[in-house]
Design a protein that fits this description.
alpha+beta; two-stranded antiparallel ribbon; 2 helices
């Protein structure tokens, strides 16, 4: 495991930002495709109180394929984490950087859109427990 000082974590932000932006875009794209393919949202007609799906198990319509998009998301996560940080939430663009504070292991915490790493939280805490960085 790599350990980060605030300066070392901040030095990575320019490299991580475009990767996180792409990750957020791919995640949004996947969410939209999943919603578009949800038969409960469209393609359902009511006949005699029963629902009919247009794309059932034996349907001539091809099943939606999201494997490639999911693979892109996984590759982006691995690429981001190859720097030694940890992707914590792909919906928010949360990234943690393992660090030390007064001899205790902590995570420096950065969220997409923030200019630099300005918060930390304990290893057993999360985003809602962030504290301002003062070391």
């Amino acid at each position: 495991m790599k350990w980060f000082s605030p300066e070392r974590a901040n030095a990575l932000i320019p490299k991580l930002t475009p990767l996180i932006d792409e990750l957020l875009a791919r995640r949004q794209e996947l969410a939209i495709k999943l919603l578009e393919s949800d038969p409960a949202l469209h393609g359902v007609s009511s006949q005699g109180g029963q629902s009919m799906r247009l794309a059932g198990p034996r349907s001539p319509f091809p099943a939606p394929k999201f494997g490639e998009l999911k693979g892109e998301i996984v590759r982006l996560i691995h690429r981001i984490e190859s720097f030694g940080c940890i992707v914590k939430d792909i919906d928010l663009g949360l990234v943690d950087f393992p660090s030390h504070r007064e001899g205790t292991a902590v995570n420096l915490c950065w969220k997409a859109g923030e200019h630099d790493v300005a918060f930390w939280h304990g290893m057993d805490e999360g985003f809602s427990d962030r504290k301002p960085l003062d070391f």
